[in-house]
Amino acid sequence: MRFFSFFDRSTRAFQFSKLTLLFAVNTGGLVAYSESKLYSDTSVDLSQVEPKKKRVVVLGTGWAGTTFLKNLDSSLYDIQVVSPLNYFAFTPLLPSVTCGTVEARSIVEPIRNIIKKKNGEIQFWEAECVKIDAANKRVHCRSNDRIIVEGKEEFLLDYDYLVIAIGALASTLNIPGVKEHCHFLKDIEDAQKIRRSVIDCFERASLPNLSEEERKTALHFIIVGGGPTGVEFAAELHDFVCEDLVKMYPTVQNLVKITVIQSGDHILNTYDERISLFAERKFQRDGIEVQTGQRVISVSDKAITTRAKVNGQIYSMPYGMIVWSTGIRIRPVLMDFMQDIGQKHKRALTTDEWLRVKGCDGIYALGDCATIHQRKIMEDISAIFNVADKDKSGTLTVKEFQGVIDDILVRYPQVEHYLKRKHMRNVLDLLNDSKGNESKESIEVDIEGFRSALSHVDSKMKNLPPTAQVAAQQGAYLARCFNHMKDSEDNAEGPLRFRESGRHQFQPFRYKHFWKFVPLGGEQAALELPGDRISIGHSTQWLWYSVYASKQVSWRTRSLVVSDWTRRFIFGRDSSRI
Ligand code: FAD
Ligand code: MG
After folding, report:
1. In this structure, is the dihedral angle defined by the CA atoms of residues 204, 208, 209 and 210, taken in order, positive or negative?
2. Does 450 contact ligand 1 (Cβ within 6 A)?
3. Using CA atoms, how far apart are residues 443 and 426, in angstroms rounded to an integer?
4. How far is the CA of 443 from the centre of ligand 2 (A)?
5. How many CB atoms lie within 10 A of CB 306?
6. Whole-angstrom Cα distance, residue 106 to residue 554?
7. Domains of the chain
8. Which atom of ligand 1 is nearest to the CA of 186?
9. Distance of alpha carbon 232 from alpha carbon 323, whole angstroms
10. What is the pLDDT of residues 219-250, one digit of tens each?
C-alpha cells in the first residue's frame, strides 16, 4: 500500500513535472512567437494585444501607504511596495505600548497579510528607498541592514506611477544633546525602548547604595512637548506608576516626579481651550508638573537646560529619562529629492490638491511627508471672472456667478470655511456684503467689485495636520483616483479649469475632520468634534475604547487589543524588563 501510494505520488510528480516542462517550453515558445510576430509582422492588429499594466511603486507601509493599498484595485496595476518595516503599526496606541497597557504585537499587522487579501499580485520588498530619480522614473532601494545579502543590497525599481508615503522623523529642533540622550515616540521600537527604560529607572532607584537625591533623579521623568503625544504619554506613565509600579517598588513610590515642558503658554494648544484647561487642571491634581513658556536649550547625559521665555532665566534639571515629542521633520531622502525638483526651501514635499508632486510627472505624495499647496482664489480671480462672465459684458450678474459657484466651492475649499466663519449661508452673501444692502438679484459686479468681494477668503488657510486621519483619507482618495484613472480620461468629473479649458479629471482631495481624542489618564479622555463641540470624562474614555477597537486594521489585532485592555483591568500591567 505504502509502495503503491509512493509510486502513485512519484508517477504523478513525474507527470506533473513533464507537464510543467511542456507548459514552460510551450509558453516560452508562445511568448517568443508572439513577440517575434509583434515585431516582424506589421499587419498584426495592435488593438488585440493586451496593453502592459502600468507599474506602481508604493514607498511606505504606514497609514497612507497601507490605506492606499487596501483600497486600490490591484488587478489594474503591476504593484511593488517598498518599506523598511514589513508591518503596519496602529500609531495612536503607541503611548499605550510604552507602559504595557497593550503589547507591541497587538497593534501591528504584517503587510503581507494585508496584501495577500488583494486579488491582484502585489510584491513587497523589505527595503528603504534611498534615492528618487524622477528624470528616469526609477527609485534606488537598499535592503534592510538585518537581511542584507552582500553585493546585492541595492536594487532599482522602474515605475510609471510613484506613491511616496514614507512619513517623517521626530524633530529634534537641532537642539544639542537631544538625539543622543532623549527617547522619541515615533514607532514600535521607540515604544518598546521607552517601556524598558521606565523599568530601568525604577530598578536603578531601588539599588541599595544610592542617596535619596540620586533616587529622585532616577525617577524624574521629563516629557518635552505638550502636544497630544506628550500629554498622552505623561498620562499613561502616571497611571502605570500609580496603579502598578507603586505596589512593586513601595520604597521609592514617593520619589517619582513627572514633568511636562512646553514652550507655548498651554499644553494641547491645538485643541479647544476647554480641553487644554481641563488637562492642565487634571495634571495639577495628579501631581504632574506642567512647565509652560520654557524652551529647552540643551540636553546632557545628566541634566536638561531650559530658558524661560518671559525673563530669559536659565534652569537646569537632572533627569532619569526624557521623552522628546516636539513634532516632525522631513526624511533626508526627501530633502535630496526636493533639491532635485526645485522644492529646496519647503518643509515637506509639496503637492497640488490632487496629491501630485509639483514639478514631477506621475509622482504622488501623501501623509506626513507631504503638504498640499492649496491654491489661493486671488491668484485666479481674473480667470474665474472671465469664465463666469459668459456674455463677455465685463460685469458679472448673479446668474452668471451662480453658474460657477459649485466649481469655486470645490476648487477653493477656503471659500466654504470663510462662509462658516462669517456665519454666511450662501456664497452670494459675499457679493451682498461688499455692496451694502442691495437686493441679491440686482447685484452686478465688475472685476474690481468681484476681487474685493472675495479678497478676504484666502486669509486663514491652514495646512492639514500630520495625523493618521489625514494620511488614511488621502490613501483612500488616491486609490479611488487610480481605480478610475482610465474611465475618467474622457469623462472628467472634477471642477472647471479656470485658467485652461475643460474640467479637471478628478475632484481635488478634501479632508473631512471627524474627531480628535486625547486620553488624559485615570480612565478619562477628551474629545473634540467639529462645530465647537467637546466631550470630556469617563464616558469619553469608553467611547475612545470603542472607536480605537473599531479602527483596528484586522479582526486579529482588534481581538488582541481588546484582550490586552481586559488583561490590564484584571491583572494590571506587567513590569518585567524583557
Ligand atoms: P507613517 O505611518 O509614519 O508611515 C511611514 C512608512 O514609511 C513606514 O512604513 C516606514 O517604514 C516607511 N518608510 C520610512 N522611510 C522609508 C523609505 N526611505 N523608503 C520606504 N519606506 C519608508 N494620528 C491620529 O490621527 N490620531 C492619533 O491618535 C495619533 N496618535 C499618534 C500617536 C503617536 C505616538 C504618533 C507617533 C503619531 C500619532 N498620530 C496620530 C499621527 C499618525 O501616526 C501619523 O500622522 C501617521 O502615521 C502618518 O502616516 P504616514 O503613512 O504618512 O506615515
Ligand atoms: Mg456678464
Report:
1. positive
2. no
3. 14
4. 11
5. 22
6. 11
7. 2-48 (no CATH), 55-168+330-370 (3.50.50.60), 178-329+514-571 (3.50.50.100), 375-460 (1.10.238)
8. 36
9. 12
10. 999 999 999 999 999 999 999 999 999 999 99
| C-beta of 473 in contact with ligand 1 (< 6 A) | no
Q: Which of 57, 59, 83, 91 best tests ligand 1's pocket when mutated (most atoms within 8 Å of CB)?
A: 91
State how far the alpha carbon of 292 is from the alpha carbons of 220, 295, 307, 526, in Å: 18, 9, 11, 20
Secondary structure class of 452 (helix, strand, coil): helix
Q: Quote the strand ranges of 84-233, DSSP E.
A: 87-89, 108-110, 122-133, 138-143, 154-158, 161-164, 169-170, 183-184, 220-224
Cα of 168 from ligand 1 centre, angstroms = 7
Phi and psi at 31, nearest 5°, equal -65, -50
392 backbone φψ class: left, alpha, beta (φ>0; ψ -120 to 50): left
CB 207 within 8 A of CB 257: no
What does the block give as the cell for 473? 483619507
Sign of the alpha-carbon torsion through 53, 57, 62, 65: negative
Residue 15 binned pLDDT confidence (cut-offs 50, 70, 90) = very low
* Nearest Cα to Cα of residue 511 among 456, 551, 463: 463
The alpha carbons of the chain give a radius of gyration, in whole angstroms, of 29
- Could you give the CA distance from residue 232 to residue 396 in angstroms, rounded to a whole number? 53
User: What is the grid cell recorded at 275?
Assistant: 480641553
* 3-class secondary structure per residue, 99-116: CCCCCHHHHEEEHHHHHH
Which of 86-103 are b and which e, b meaning 16 or more Cβ less than 10 Å from the residue's Cβ?
bbbbbbbbbbbbbbbbbb
Nearest ligand 1 atom, CA 333? 18
Cα-to-centroid distance, 237 and ligand 2 (Å): 65
- Measured from the alpha carbon of residue 403, the closest ligand is 2
CB 517 within 8 Å of CB 529: no
Strands 87-89 and 108-110: antiparallel
CA of 167 to the centre of ligand 1 (A): 5
Place of cell 537631544: 178
The reply to whether ligand 1 has any atom less than 6 angstroms from the CB of 63 is yes
Pick from 123, 124, 157, 155: which is nearest to 142 by CA? 155
Mean pLDDT over residues 156-165, rounded? 98
Condensed to tens digits (0 to 9), the pLDDT of residues 184-230 reads 999 999 999 999 999 999 999 999 999 999 999 999 999 999 999 99
Ligand 1 pocket: which of 57, 67, 68, 83 to mutate (most atoms within 8 A of CB): 83
Contact 532, 273 (CB under 8 A): no
Report the C-alpha gap between 330 and 349 in whole angstroms.
8
Is the CB of residue 444 less than 8 Å from the CB of residue 395? yes
**Ligand minimally distant from the alpha carbon of residue 399:** 2
Phi-psi sector, 268: left (phi>0), alpha (psi -120 to 50), beta: left
pLDDT of residue 51: 65
